[in-house]
Amino acid sequence: MSEQIVKYEAGSRLSDEQKQVIKNMVGGKPTEAELSIFFEICNRTGLDFFRKQIYLLPFYNTNREGFDYVACTSIDGLRSLAQNTGRYDGQGAPIWYDDKGAEYLIWTNKKENPFACKMQVFV
To answer: Which of 53, 26, 25, 58 is nearest to 41 (CA)?
Structure first.
C-alpha cells in the first residue's frame, strides 16, 4: 500500500486499496461476506467510512457464540443522508433521558451515562 493518504469521494466505488485500509482498521475478524455487504452499503448510500459516517461494528450473537459484523450509520451519516434529500432543514437541541424517563435539556451527571437521547429533525 502506498504511503499517501487514501482518497475517497463520497458516492464513488471503493478501490481495493481503500477496502484494505478499512479491513485493517476494523477490529476483530469480519467475514468476507460481511465485508462485501459493508462495502456495497457504502457504495450504494455514498456514506463515507473515512468521514466516520458509517462503521462496521461487532455485535455478539449468543445463538452462534460469536460476533456478527453489522453496518451502523453514525449521526453524521444520517445528517448527510437527510441533507441529500433536499428537504433537511436543520435540527433541534437534544433532549437527554435517564433510565427512569426523566427529561434533561443538558446532561450534567458525570457518574452515569444518559439512557437515551432524542433529536428533532426539521423538514
So the answer is: 53
- Integer Cα distance of 105 and 110 in angstroms: 15
What average pLDDT does the segment 60-66 reach? Answer: 92
With 0-12 / 13-18 / 19 or more C-beta atoms within 10 angstroms meaning exposed / middle / buried, residue 122 is exposed
> What pLDDT does 60 receive?
92
Please tell me the distance from the alpha carbon of residue 102 to that of residue 92, in angstroms, as a whole number: 19
pTM: 0.68
What is d(CA 104, CA 116) in angstroms, rounded to the nearest whole number?
10
Phi, psi dihedrals of residue 110, rounded to the nearest 5°: -80, -15
